[in-house]
Request: fold
Amino acid sequence: MSNVRTTERTTAVGRARTVLARRTEGRAVALLVVVAIVAAVFEPVVFSSFPVVLGRLALIGLVALGLTALILLGELDLSVASTLALSGVVMASVPNLGLGIIAALITGIVVGLINAFFVVVVGINSFIATLGMLFALRGAAFVISAEKPVPLENIDAGIAFGSSLLGPLTPRVLLFFVIFAVLQILLSRTRIGREFYAVGGNRQAAIDVGIPVRRRLVLGFVISGVVAATAGIINTLELTAADPTAGSTVLLASFAAAIIGGVVLTGGRGTIVGTLLGALALSILQVVLTLSGVQVDIQDIFIGSILLVAIISDPSSLRTAWVRLRAAITRSRTRDTARGLTGNAADQ
Amino acid sequence: MAKPTFTESIGVVAPTSTELSTGARVIKFVADRGIIAFTVILIVYAAIFVNGFASLPNISDVFYRAAPIGIVALGMTFVVISANYLDLSVVAQVATSAVIFIGVSNQAGLAPAILLALLVAVIYGVVNGVAVGFFHANAVIVTLATTFVGLGVLRWLSGGSIFFGPNGGVIQSLGQAKVGPIPLSAIVLIVMAVILGFVLQKTTFGFSIRSYGSNKAATRLAGVRTGQLVVGAFLITSISAMVAGFVLAAFSNTAVSSMAEGYDFQALAAIIIGGTSVFGGKGSVYRTLLGVVFVSVLTNILVLVGLTFGAQQVAIGVLIVVAVSIDAIARKLVKN
Amino acid sequence: MRVSRITMGALSIAAASTILLSACSSSGTAGNNSADNGKKSYDVYALLPQGTDQPYGTTYLPPMKAEAAKDNIKLTITNSKYNADQQASECDVAVAAKPDLIVLWPAVGDTVRPCLAKAKAAGIPVTVTNSGVNKADVSLTKGFSGPDTYGQGVASAEIMCDITAGKDVGILVVNGLTGNSTATTRHDGFADTIAKKCPNVKILAEQPGNWNKDDSKIAVSEMLTSVGASKVQGIYAADDTMVAGAIDALKARGIDPAPLFITSIGNTKLGNPLVVSGELDGTVFQSSSWDGQHAIDLAYSVLTGGTVKDQFMPSVKVTKANATDPSVAPEW
Reply:
């Protein structure tokens, strides 16, 4: 009934509503607004130092971008943090900076291809294949680096890389937005992008309509691997050394950014913009907390609480909870019927 | 319906189809036996070629390695089977339980310590379970969030200190107790496996968890209270993590909030190596136990032959992928 | 739909930037170099890689905060949990906040040059605590206070050399967390000194114990199996928590640890009683309260323009002879 009234009243509002209902970024936007308001009230310094926020965004958001493309296909990559560490170590182990960067990128491509091989050719689940790679690649980073940080031969190049190009724009931030733009265009403007959504939404249907599912999967893993390797290169340059223990928080931070941004882990739903907004909300939150000088334990409690509230306060989550709660109440009234049904299920 | 990959689709068989075709039975046989074969080959190889592997003290060490992580993995199997990926908060849960077990029992005795740890475990299980089961929130983020909150609270309240039990105290003697070469902790592991195996295979709850994991919508339509199911799965995980905390604390007679780091993904690795599907529905507690034995024996061998930590990680990672690949290829061959 | 997607994104970005800008104008009013009880007050950022997540950090923080309160220093403490890129980002935050000084405990020594360079460019002095920076970077800092981590490894090795007295001895080595800089530096100090001063001591096997008692206990037990328990006459562990695990492992096999040559580093509440009982032959005292207090002490000297000198925590060897001395009372 309300639907009818809306469409009758103004088409613009009606259209906006349907658009909003179709969007997946609602949670990220809500979190971003809440975090921004809290920041504006308690720690306004964060806004005058927004280059710092951008830097943090590029740090925790970069790997998440590549991961998002893969998640949209309905696959996961748990090896991104290890790929980051390994490619950094490979890069720093090559004396020539240019060759090192190339070697690191090749590492990312090879890791992506290996992951894709196990998933597409051998046919094991990506969760398992990349879990194995999570251990193996981290181990390889330790072996190659002899368990110590590998300093760059050319430290000055690293320092130069870390400094600003123009205002708040450091090469890291620039690269972040370039990769964001490339993936955004790829996923929202091209046929390949539409196929990514199709493969993630319903794989069998995608096969049936003749989408080259295998090739798309390989591309997804390579994107994830290359973006992780790029993050490894940027880290190594900015820190002037490759640390084999690097990226310990990258994996979970990337998943958090993507999921808060509305990307569904089973594939087919979500956007790169969502991941960007999720990562932005998390970065502002972290920077605000650091600036606040609150005891670190309390900061952790705060971050955890915000994450929890953000993930359960999604409109669809609240709707589900309400439906289940109502069902639970109704069912306790007619408990006998419910028991009968459960019994049936057990017999099937 | 959870989305299967190419070959995973054959794994999403209804859990208790009583009448299997011959082909399906063969597939099931191979899939079940793959990890046993690997474990047996590994043990036989090590007994012949690795010096000291078959000695009594070393058998104890394998059990010591297996017990705490194994108990966590047994419980977490329920979360994985219910198609909820994993419970990251087990790290915080094990550490909290260990700190309470030693810290509180130093002050107020063992019984209050156990009661408090149980209360905390129930809180973890209910919060995780309600958020995932009733609010339909993603389990990875929910348990990541509870990890942050849990470790924050633990460090805030306990001050982050290291706690140790008195020399010759009850906890220390529990940690040192053995039956032959088998430590008490391993007996706890086996008892937990028997109990949890019974719950998963023989009870309505266990059946519902498995059917929920393979087909959420159908299970809900069948009238099963799916919200309560998920809470149940997370409660079993948190109670197991509590027991693992006791075992770990007793083993070293110390507890500190940084304990059990890496238990989240190590437990997941054991569950997956055992053959439990991350898409839910398929798997068993007994498979997880095998996975735990496999990983513990493997790690033990790698230390015995003197590999560095990095090389150990490479070997474990590669073997996870190889073991699962051979399993997948065998199933493909059988299917054709 | 495509247009609306862009509109949607633009809207949210616009909303965020509106708040950004409005807040921008309201900031900058907070100046807090106000005189308080006659003393000048200072803003200091302390970028640490551990805190209450580690027992050492737990006992490091209170004396640090107490000293800061005494000197009218407002401390903002971070904890990067040994994550170098996290610490680099925290350093950016600190530089942007323009404090009077930054106290840096490097998460990974090789990675702090950019942070030091940025602070220098912003005119913010940096002092270093606990773990030193590379030689080439020392000129970018105002001073160092803390333990001589390499020297601790050396001191522990010297105890080992003394007690073995030229005998041919095979030992097991338990290291800290793999890749951790303190673990690596202590190991190098120990191994270098053994090779130079008492080559009679042979390292038979080594494994990480991850700073944990439980991990160390299993690792030592397995190493005993692999090299043969009868060939092992000594153990070095990189800290007291792990050496306690090693001694437990020996006892679990019915081996009396007293006749074995065992050394470590720390002199903690777990290790000190073992020295007193004679099971642990020697350890090297690292005082977390000295460390935390001197970090601020040094910072205060820099802030007030006093004389600034690097302050090294003395690597006091603790053996049965002095283990009950009040000057080496364990702290955690």
